[in-house]
Amino acid sequence: MTLITRRSVLIAGTATAGAVLVPAVSATAAPKAEKASGTRISVASGETYEVSATTRVSELSIADGGKIVAPDGSSLSLTVDGVETGQLLTATGATATLIQAGTYRGDVVLTVAAANEVTYQTLTFPFRQAVYVDGDGVVKDKSVLAAALGGKLTDAYARNVSITSTGECFDGVYVQDATYTLDRPTISLTGNGRSDFAGYGAAVVGDGSATTLVVDGARIDTKGVVRTAVIADDGANVIVKDSVLRARNGVLPADYQATVETPYMESVPWMLGLDGNVRATNLIGANSKATYLNSTIFSETWGALSVEGGSGLKLTAINSHFGNTGEYGYGTYAIGDATVRVLGSRLDVGSYATIIAGPAAVVHYGDSTKAAVSALNTELELGLSKGELASIPVRNTVVNSGHFGYMFFGTGQLTLDGGTVINSERATFLNKGQQTTISVDGSQGARLNPRDGIILQMIELDDPGPVPVNGKMMNIGVYTEPTGDPAKDASFDPTAVHTTDGAATFNSIALKGDFYNGMRKGKNMVLTFEDASVEGVISATTAKHRVSSIDASTFYELGIVTNTVGAAVNNGAIVQLNSGSTWTVTGTSYLTRLTLAADATVKAPRGKKVTLTVDGTATAITAGQTYTGALTLTVG
Fold it and tell me: Cα separation of 367 and 375, whole Å?
C-alpha cells in the first residue's frame, strides 16, 4: 500500500508592489516562520507526499520509490537557488513529469501552480512555466516565479529577467492571448523537452490569435531533445529583435523509436537527409507570424527557423544571421501554404537554405530594402517606429551551404532577387520530382555559385516514407535505387510544357553550370532565360545515387547522384532563350524542345563548334526558330 501524506510546510507568498511582480526567490523578506533554516522535507520509499501550497525549505530528500506531488488540478515544480531542476518525464513518450529521488539543498522552493494543460492532437501536455501571461498580465497562480530571477516583472513586460532550468519539459515564458514584451531576458534550458509542436519544454511560447509578443535583446540557450528556443502558435504574432538564440541537441531516450507522428516526434525524419533532435524555432497553427530582425539564430542540426503544419503562416528574417553549427541542417522550412521571406540575411547552413515541402509554399530571398522592410512592418504589424525603420541598414542575402542550396520535396514557389548570393557545395536547386516555380532575377547582382557545377538537379523522390508498425508510422523505411531503364509512358509528352513540370526562369543573370533532368516518370524540366547567359550542359539524364540502398544509417546519401546524359524518355528538357539570351553549350546535351528568340544565340566555347540533330537529322541552329523532338547538341 502506498502511503499518501498531505503536508504544507512554510508557505512562501509572492510579494507585489503596484504593477511590479517580485519573483519569490527575490523576496528575501520571508514570513517570520521561515527563519528556521533547518526546515526539511523527507519523503520515504513508498510514500507519496502531497504539497498543498508553495513551500520553501532548506533541504528536500526523496528516497527511491518515494513521490512528491501537487493536488489534483495543480502542478509541482522544484527550484534550488532559483534554478528549476529535478523533474524528468515518467517514461519515453509520456507527457507527465516527476521530481526524481535525491537530496536537494539550498534555497529549495516547491511551487504549487494551477494546471496549464495544452492539448495537441491526441495528447494533453501538463505545462509548467516560470512566467505565465494572459490578457490581464502575469498570472501568479500559473507561474513558477521562484525560477524568474532578477530584473523587473510587470503585467506588461519583463526586463532583465533570468530563467534557468536543468529539469525536463519546463518552459521559460508562456504568453496566451496577450500583448507582452520580453526585454533583455536571459533563458538557459538544459535537459529534454517533449514536443515542439505543442511547445512543451520551450524557452518562449507565444500562443493565441490575440497575442503580440516582442522578444527584444534576448539571450536564449537550450540544450536538449526538442528544447526549442521560440515557438509561435495558433495565430500569435511573435517578433524577435536584436536577440541571440542557440539550440543544441540532447540525448534521445534509449528506447525512443523515430516516427513521423507529430505528437510523438522528437527527432527530425532522416528521410530529409538530416539528423538531429532540436530545432531552434517553430511556427505552427493557423495564421501565426514569426519575425526575426537583426538576430542570430542557430540550431546544432535539424533546423534554425522552422514552419510546421498549419495554414496562413508567415515566417520572416530581416538582417539576421542564422543556420546550423553542425554538419547537417536547414535554415528555413516551408510547408503548407506558408510564406517565408529572408531579406538582408546571412545563412550558414549544413544542408539546405530552405526545404520546400509544399503544397503551396511561397519563398522569397532578397535585399532588406527600405521599401520592403517598411511594407513588412505594416503587413506583419511589427510596430517599428520611423526611427527604427530608418536605422535598419540595407543588405543583401548570402547563403553558404555545406550541401545543396534549396531542396523541393513538395510543390513550391521560390524567388531569388536583389543581390542575393547562393554558395553551395552541391546543386543550387535540388528538385525531388516536384512541380516548381523558380524565379531568379539577377538584375541587381544575384549570383548562383554551386561548387559541383550543377545549378538544377531533378531526380525522383528518394524519400522511402515511414512504415506502419503496430498502428504507428515509424521511420524505418529503406530507399532502393530502381534498376533497368524507365518504361516509356505513351500518355506523357516530353516536348510539351505541363503545369506539373519543374519550371525555372532566369532573368538578367550570367550563369555557369549544368541543368539535369533525371526523372524516370513523366515530368519535364522547363527552363526560360530572359536577357540571360548560361554556360553549361542542359540535358535529360540518368541519375543514380552513389549507393543503391539508403536507410537511417546512411541518410546523408539522399539527393546525391551522378548523371549520365542521354535521350529523354519521360524526362523532357525544354529550353526557351528569350530576347538577349545566350547559351554556350559545353558538352553533349539532350533536349526535347528548344525555342530561340530573334536575337538569341546558341554557341560553343571559343575554338569549338556546336551542332544540332533533330530526330537524328543534322539541323542548322537559327535564331527565331523552335525545334521539337529528340534534340541532341554536341560540341566538337
Answer: 13
pLDDT category of residue 38 using cuts at 50, 70 and 90: low
Contact 455, 536 (CB under 8 A): yes
Distance CA 511, CA 531 (A): 11
DSSP secondary structure code for residue 142 in this structure: G
Question: Residue 473 is which amino acid?
Answer: M
CA–CA distance, 523 with 573 (Å, rounded to integer): 9
Asked whether the beta carbons of 373 and 321 are under 8 A apart, the reply is: no
Cα–Cα dist 69/517, whole Å: 61
Measured at the CA of 254, the angle between CA 249 and CA 260, to 5 degrees, comes to: 70
Which amino acid would we find at residue 134?
D
Residue 465's nearest CA partner among 452, 450, 476, 481 is: 476
Distance CA 250, CA 253 (A): 9
Beta carbons of 429 and 438 less than 8 angstroms apart: yes
pLDDT digits (tens, 9 = 90+) for 322-338: 999 999 999 999 999 99
Q: What is the pLDDT of residue 25?
A: 35
Instruction: Cell numbers for 183, please give them.
Output: 526585454
Match 508553495 to its residue by C-alpha cell. Answer: 54
Q: Cα dihedral angle (608, 613, 617, 622), rounded to 10 degrees?
A: -80
Tell me the CA end-to-end span of the chain in Å, nearest whole number. 90
For the stretch 356-380, what's the b/e string if a residue is b when 16 or more beta carbons lie within 10 angstroms of its beta carbon? bbbeebbbbbbbbbeebbbebbeeb
What is the phi/psi pair of residue 589, to 5°? -135, 135
H/E element, 173: strand 171-176
User: Whose grid coordinates read 501565426?
Assistant: 288
Check whether 482 has a pLDDT greater than 80: yes
Residue type, 57: V
Spatial distance between the Cα atoms of 232 and 216, rounded to a whole number of angstroms: 15
- Give me 544's grid cell: 543514380
CB proximity list for 528: less than 8 A, separation 6 or greater: 503, 504, 505, 506, 576, 578
Among 230, 210, 236, 362, which residue's Cα sits nearest to residue 293?
230
pTM of the entire predicted model: 0.94
Is the model more confident about 19 or about 406?
406
pLDDT greater than 70 at residue 419: yes
Cβ(555)–Cβ(479) below 8 Å: no
